[in-house]
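Box 3.1. Reading complex inputs
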Amino acid sequence: MNIAIRQIHGAFAGEVSGIDITRPLAPAEVAAIEAGMDRHAVLVFHDQRFTDEQQMAFSQSFGPLEDARGGNITKPHERRLQVGMGDVSNLDRQGVPMARDSRQRLFNLGNMLWHSDSSYRAIPAKYSLLSARVVNPVGGNTEFADMRAAYDALDAGFKAEIEEHVCEHSLLYSRGSLGITEYSEEERAMFRPVRQRLVRTHPVSGRKSLYLSAHAGAIIGMPTPEARILLRELNEHATQPRFVYAHAWRQWDLVIWDNRQVMHRVRRYDEAQPRDMRRTTVAGDSPTTAQVQAA
Ligand SMILES: [Fe+2]
């Protein structure tokens, strides 16, 4: 096994070499990658010419894939990719960039807000894996922010103040901040807020981190404006350049990130030209806090 990981940012993120992850992996290789993820939270692999089937198989090395239902407004007949593959492209079923006023496109612009994938689910995601099939020629970097380093940098008093806070997360909050407020009854029910701890602990490393996301829009027991100001302040703190790694994509890059330890966002790009990025998501295994039963 020649796998090597080189840290590419002062706080986190590693570049992996010496492994072809498109073929079936030995348990020791999976363990080495998982240990790298626990430490670096983001891993970059170059020149991995994945098919969708290979990407799904590799992803399942780290746990079952997340059931993607309830995560967007795309109807089954509008899907470009098979079940199990998350479509983070700007393409419609015909492989053409979506129209400017496409509701699907406008909804997907929410990926340009700092977030953690699936934080709007009661059991949020573990890893996301993004494969660059067609890279857009202008912009489109994905940025990652290390929520452990951001937490560590808070002073002790502030840490104690927020330790027990529980937030409400929903796509209604993240998309609402972009002015998207019209939904069907079915969508509204699907996007019902869930509760997440604001400070979470990594199950392996034991490190604490800020569990922030554009989907967070309320804090239990706190007036909404006060909660939003606090969340905004924490987001500004956590996304300072010293906590951020910006990934400039090359075709056939695969990047894995641990949603329990980092936030991410995509930057603007030339939407008249294709950007074909395909995501698989490894499901998390436990909630961060108890949910309230719906009446
Ligand atoms: Fe995302």
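In summary: The longest helix spans residues 224-238.
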